[in-house]
Design goal:
Elements: E1 5-16, E2 19-30, E3 34-38, H1 45-53, E4 60-65, E5 68-69, H2 75-81, E6 83-85, H3 98-107, H4 124-136, H5 152-164, E7 170-174, H6 182-195, E8 200-204, H7 208-214, E9 217-222, E10 225-230, H8 232-237, H9 239-246
Parallel strand pairs: 3-8, 3-9, 6-7, 7-8
Antiparallel strand pairs: 1-2, 1-4, 4-5, 9-10
């Protein structure tokens, strides 16, 4: 395999009472790869993202960032070292403009020190970061529109732009295509293709066509455990995966 391992887990588990939502999960996210996470509802996919981002604590096991144990770090601390995430529900400030949403994210990463009385909206280092993020996500033309006026697909793009303004190395994306039409989905997939060279991407998604069109590595989870990890071709050909999730005769179903 090529690409630096940026985020990994060792024996990661999470229990809710007697329920093991994640059980002994070990995986690696590498720069330059889209690692898709598949599984039926209740498989433990969102729980795993929450463990990686620090939104919920682990019961046992470790989370490593570039080989360093970050299991005890809070979500904001993980964000600061380079771990970004999105949520199933769009998470933006609808009353602010696209640019303002992004500037607030950039501002959180750029200590201003003695510039506390200066105008943050005119501070050039923030604007450079914002302009680059909007350009990479295709939102430059709507920079001064309120976020509430954007289409659903554009709002998801804005969520990604906000994330990019925090300078992440790892992107944890929880169903970024949810609720999108065909054209919007294609636009988001192309966006992710443009980002993968400089990031490690974990993609949780139910659109199987999209997953298999972009993923380099696929991990399938069932009942909180990893059933199999492999290339998209290996996962498609796996009778074990077909029986557990994808359906009979290797046909990929939409769920």
């Amino acid at each position: 395999m090529t690409g630096e391992v940026l985020l990994s887990t060792v024996g990661l588990s999470r229990r809710f009472g007697g329920l093991r939502a994640n059980d002994n999960i070990s995986l690696e996210l590498r720069r330059g790869q889209v690692h898709a996470l598949l599984g039926p509802n209740g498989a433990g996919k969102s729980t795993l993202i929450n463990l990686l981002s620090g939104d919920i604590p682990v019961s046992s096991g470790k989370v490593l960032y570039r080989g360093e144990d970050i299991t005890a770090l809070a979500p904001h601390e993980r964000s600061r070292i380079g771990i970004g995430r999105s949520y199933q529900k769009t998470n933006i400030f609808p009353g602010f403009t696209v640019q303002e949403n992004c500037r607030l994210a950039a501002q959180s990463r750029e200590p201003r020190g003695t510039r506390i009385f200066s105008d943050a909206a005119a501070y050039r280092p923030y604007l450079v970061v914002v302009e680059e993020a909007l350009d990479r996500t295709g939102l430059s033309d709507v920079a001064h529109r309120r976020a509430s006026e954007l289409s659903h697909g554009q709002q998801r793009q804005l969520e990604l732009a906000i994330m990019l303004c925090t300078s992440p190395k790892v992107l944890l994306l929880d169903e970024p295509l949810a609720g999108m039409g065909h054209e919007e989905s294609l636009r988001m997939i192309e966006l992710l293709r443009g980002l993968v060279a400089s990031h490690a991407i974990l993609l949780v998604e139910h659109d199987m066509d999209a997953v298999f069109s972009i993923a380099d590595v696929v991990t399938v989870m069932v009942n909180g455990v990893v059933l199999q990890t492999g290339t998209p071709q290996q996962i498609r050909a796996s009778s074990e995966v077909q029986n557990a999730y994808l359906g009979s005769e290797g046909e990929v179903s939409h769920v």
